[in-house]
Amino acid sequence: MPQYDYDIAVIGAGAAGLTVAAGAAQAGAKTLIVEKEPAMGGDCLHYGCVPSKTLIKSAHIYHQMKQAARYGLPEVAVPAVDFSRVRERIQRVIATIQPHDSPERFCKLGAEVAFGRAEFLDEHQARITTNAGEVRKVSAKSWVVATGSTSAVPRLEGLDSTPYLTNREIFSLDSLPSSLMIIGGGPIAVEMAQAFARLGSRVHVIQRSPQILSREDADMAGLVQSVLEREGVTFHLGTELLRVRDLGQEREVDFRAQDGMETSVRGAALLVALGRSATTRGLGLKNAGVEIGSKGISVDARLRTSQKHIYACGDVTGAYQFTHAAGYEGGVVVTNAVFHLPRKADYTWMPACTYTDPEFASLGLNEKQAQKQGLDYTVWTEEFVENDRSQAEEEREGRIKLLLDKKSKPLGVQIVGPHAGELLAEWVAVLGGKVKLSTLAGSVHPYPTLAEINKKVAGKHLSEKIFSDGVKKTLKFFFGFKGRACGGEPDGSR
Length: 494
Prior knowledge:
This protein is of the alpha/beta class. The protein has 3 domains: 147 residues, FAD/NAD(P)-binding domain; 116 residues, FAD/NAD(P)-binding domain (3-Layer(bba) Sandwich), CATH 3.50.50.60; 119 residues, Enolase-like, domain 1, CATH 3.30.390.30. The protein is built from 15 helices and 20 strands. A 5-stranded mixed β-barrel has the order 1-2-3-4-5. It starts with 5 loop residues before the first strand and ends in a 15-residue tail after the last helix.
């Protein structure tokens, strides 16, 4: 049997790679982690989830400061934002979390950490070029590619000669841009649009699709858009990007609008947020015989590449580009590569959340996906305006939408509303645990809470059966009920 330097080697120290490394090292496997950046934690910690949610919170508080009168409080003069202080807070939060992803912690777990680049020489060997310039060859019985993704940059006339921002630069600006143009209409684009608009920037969103959050149902995405528009964000949807220009103090974007007219927008800064591209360049995957698909490294249900001892997980596969998905996939890899127990990734109930205000959280199928699959379904909704906690907190925007198949089994849930990501957690447990909707509908929720909306929509379709004409006739026959005392229909509230 060949002798290898390591039992398992992991390329990439983001959420997926660190999950694999931690599990493998604690299980007793000799483990190597190779990370090209000077610090571990991946994009999520340094340029993604953590800094974006920290910025969003600062923008939310500033927005609340300007909304004092809405809560019956005295209006106050709110000073302009000093973005350098916001930036300092972002870095402070990152630094607080960083030790959890530090080399010291993983060394204690038993994994070796090397900062540098890895390039496959064959299916088991790789050349490691450290950031200090040292070069060595290593071999491993199993390899894991978890190199994540980078911001997708379009082929657009003038972009290569025009300064622009991506998620790597947007959180470390020296000052707040007076105006910001955003190319793209996905989660990153709309989150940053609202955050910078709330902080005081004039924001334009230029999107190729006729709606923002184009994978979502139009009615739900429209709820988010309407809020952002009221807060000052200008949307240019269904556009054809033509070119960009550097005007010195400003940038200019030319595009063809839906009416066919060529239009230009100028701004102090330009953010490119057109999705993510799998990071595969320079890995020597061809040398290892690893196949790359149109979106990223091709894997099977057990996250094995075309070489069964080489796994890929996280953004680099191009599938579900969420930090929580990367962590989940890392666990699947550990089960297969370390414990040698066959385990397949199951994305049926993979949650997602866009952290606008209101948030947009989803689980399972939406209407677009159900229609694409040719499924028969019914839609059940509840509005947050009918929720008493929403009324008390002046957070009345949004709704919950539940899709049921023809057998009344859940297909998916979408929530646009306050703390939608937190509210979705109950559905993750219910649907992932195969809990009956009748159980959720019959459960007791504290009052008043936003989570009551989950109970209410779960019970809504049940109430049609419970309070049907047939049931009323049966009760009248057996118990002599006299019928309604007043006219009208019951509203089913509380």
